[in-house]
Amino acid sequence: MIPGLSNLNFRRHGYVPLLCIIVLTLLLIIALFPEQIAPYAQNKRFLPYMDPDNAHLLGTDDMGYDILTLLVYATRISLTIGFFAGGLSLLIGTATGILSGYLRGWVDDMIMGITDITLIIPKIPAIILIAAYVRPGIWILILVLGLLSWETTARVVRAKTMQISNAGFIMSARCLGFPSRSIIIQEIIPVIYPVILPK
Fold it and tell me: Of 21, 36, 40, 65, whose CB neighbour count within 10 A is largest?
């Protein structure tokens, strides 16, 4: 193999994931230990609209709170929302995609119809509209984001499931009388999980 090409492949596929892991690790540390990292207590106030200086690296907001402190404490909230909303959308998208691709027929038509409707719903206006009628909170935001963000995963999983549903090992399992649940859990999911993980 050409040395330059090998080095190029490493730079393309090695540095970026490593950088992502480092950044994510730093964010996790900030989220887990905000009291030790933030320069001030979360409820400590100063003069409003202070310019950035050595005491306040990002200045203060209109209420007098240190902006860097607010960002440090907000990291935990952002990661919590992203983790649980992503997990919920991944769970819904995987389940619906497998059912749609494996059962096909009217089940596939119904699920894909719901997927198309979900796909065209504008996310931000929907969140604002729901927040106007429901008491806002982290878990409400997680629920809304999870319920409105699964359609892409469902389409990818459905395509992969349809691709392998006619494979020899799947047909053999059907001929041997294995129930659909066992085929999905033991045969299909282990094959499609490399497609699910990047989501």
Answer: 65
